[in-house]
Each structure stands twice: as C-alpha cells, then as structure tokens.
Amino acid sequence: MEKTKEVSKKAVTPKAETEKKSLKVQIPELITFLQAGSHFGHKGSAWNPKMKKFIYETRNGVHIIDLVKTRKLLEVALTDLNNIVDKGNVLIVGTKGQAAGLIEKSAKESGAFYITKRWPGGLFTNFDHMRKSIQGLVRMEENLASGGEDLVKKEILLMERQVQRMNKVYEGIKFMDELPKMLIVIDSKVEKNAINEAKIAGIPVLALIDTNCDPDLVDYPIPANDDSIKSISLFVSLFEEVIKDGKKSESLRALRTNHEANLRNLQTRYIEEKERQEKMEEEERLRMKAMREGKTDVQTSGVVRVVKREKNIEEEIAAAEAVKAESNSRKIEDLGLSVRIEKALKESGIETVEDLAGKTKDDLKGIKGVGEKAVEEILKAIK
C-alpha cells in the first residue's frame, strides 16, 4: 500500500512542475545587493524580534541582514510572481516618498497597478463600490475631454476638481475590474492597512521587510533595506522584469495606451467642433448685419457678394398711388398757407389739394385775392 502511494506521488510531481513557467530573470549576485546597501537594517533598539532569523550580525549598533537568505527568498517570490502574472494583474503599493516615484514609473512600464499617494480604505474589502468609483472617474475624464456636454461652466469646474482629487488616489488602479492576484509592498510597516485588507480578501502579499517589520504578516517576505533608494530601486526593477512578461500586464498596458489616445482624440474633436461652431456663428453674425444694411449677403465660405434687390413694380406702383391719394386728400389748411390765401382759395371753391391739381400759374392768378407771390407760395406748398 505504501509503495502505491510513493509511485503516485512520483507520477504527479513532474506534471505539476511542467505547468510552472520558467523564470527568465537572473537573480543578482550578493555583491549587487551589498552595493545597493540592501544589507543595512535598523538600530538594535528598533528591531522586531521575529526578524532574528534573518539578521546576520550587529555592527555598530545596527543590524546587518543576511543577504544569502534574502537571495533565496527573493528567488522563491519571483518564481511564484512569474506564474501569477499570466493569470491576473499585480498591485504594487509604496506611499513613502523615496519609493513612490520609482514604483509609478516601473508600474506604468511593466503593466502593473500601483498606489503611491495613500491607501484607499476598502479597496479590497469593499471592492464593488470602489470599482464603481474608479469607472466613474474614467467616464468623467472622457466627458471633460469632450468639452463637458450638457454641463454649465460651474459644473465643468467642479468635475475637473473632482477628477484631479480622485486621480491622486485612483490614477494607478484605473481599469481594475477584479481583485489583483498578488499585492507587492515596499514597506510592510507603513502599508499595514493594505496588508490587512489583502489577508481578509485572500490575496497573497510579497513585501520587503526591514529589521523593524513582522515577517509573519506576509506570504513572501524578502528581508532587505526598505529605506534606501538604491535598495528599493534594485528590487523594484526585478519585479518590473517579471511583471512585464505577463499576459495580463500586456493587456493593462494596452488599455492605458488606448485610454490616453481616446482622451486625445475626444479633445481634438471637441476643439475642432468648437472652432467650426465659432466660425459659423461669426459668419451668421456678419450675414445678419449685412441683411440689416441691405447691402450684402455673406456666404458660408466667408466671401462677401453684393446682391442687387429685385424691384417689384406692382408693389411700387401701388405704394406710389397710395402716397398720391394721401397727398390729394389733404385739405388746404394742411399746406401751411397764410390765412388770406386760404380764404381766397376757399371762396373760389378750392377745399383740398386735389382741387389744385392741374391748375396752372395763370389759373391761380385768375383767382380773386391771389397775386404773384401768393401763386409762388401755393406751388411751393404742394410740391
């Protein structure tokens, strides 16, 4: 019975090994870690007793990390990370100053999610709600790039501020539609909230642990100096090499590139449409101005063409007759003549301007009481 069990184990083990992807990254030699200062820990007074097994010696009151153990644990961690990156994405967290810039640059190039400002509480434990907020951020960016359709200026300003505020926290985790398959932490003591949520969500944690940290809190502890920029840079570059070859990492890089290109296209189309609208409004303004002046007609091409008005003869004749009828119906009193002349005209039977029509100079002189000067005054008044 025991032999049967042994045979079955031998049959299963090679199959499991063939499923693992070989690690292409070369683990640095000890001298590389020494040159980066990865062996320097904290002072003896600030240590965590659980780190004792990873401490080589104490020198001038400072703990020296055993880099042989560091190298072995790093190889184990990178091997498992190498297999995980084909199944899902990785989240790298490092919010302290010396790590933030390195992590952001590395995560963008490799195709990993990253958080460098502050840990958003509930990212893992309340993921559904956080995912909606992140998706809302992407939609707001697209809306703003399109010019904020259906929004007034104040609403656009408020949205811009909200996007800036949200990007400080969520910029590195856009398009995170599911929980990451691994959490990488640079300082396990600083990022304790992220580690606690990862443990609740069942996400494995890989972390650099200095001599003041608790190695039992993480699944893949890598004892090393987590304060030196050189040391952090060395490990981050190794993580980057492994993550970059992952299938999911390639998809994330493509998503980010497409999103940026989409925002640029939306912005370009908005600017072009705005310029077109402004041009049309200006042409319409000039056209209306020209129409009011009755001189020109502004074409959409911006060329001004002089247009002659077509005369409507019938309308003009009717208008002339109306003016003539109105003039003829006026009374003598409306001409503004002197009282003496008005009296002389009325006594001769002339009451309206129409009665004067056709009268010659001699006819007017023949009227009693109308002399040469009176005739000139009458003719001048009826013109």
UniProtKB/TrEMBL annotation:
The chain positions of domain RNA polymerase alpha subunit C-terminal read 324-382
Q: Which residues form a coiled coil?
A: 249-330
* Cellular component, GO, one term: small ribosomal subunit
Q: Name one Pfam family in it.
A: Ribosomal_S2
The UniProt keyword set, sorted, is: Coiled coil, Ribonucleoprotein, Ribosomal protein
In alphabetical order, the GO MF annotations are: DNA binding; DNA-directed RNA polymerase activity; structural constituent of ribosome
Task: Name the source's superkingdom.
Answer: Bacteria
For this entry, list what GO says about its biological process: DNA-templated transcription; translation
* Stretches that traverse the bilayer: none
Report the InterPro entries cross-referenced here.
Answer: Ribosomal_uS2 (IPR001865), Ribosomal_uS2_bac/mit/plastid (IPR005706), Ribosomal_uS2_CS (IPR018130), Ribosomal_uS2_flav_dom_sf (IPR023591), RNAP_asu_C (IPR011260)
**NCBIfam families documented for this protein:** rpsB_bact
For this chain, the family text in UniProt reads:
Belongs to the universal ribosomal protein uS2 family.
**Protein name in the entry:** Small ribosomal subunit protein uS2
Look up and give the organism this protein is from.
Candidatus Dojkabacteria bacterium HGW-Dojkabacteria-1
Q: What are the leading ranks of the lineage? A: Bacteria, Candidatus Dojkabacteria
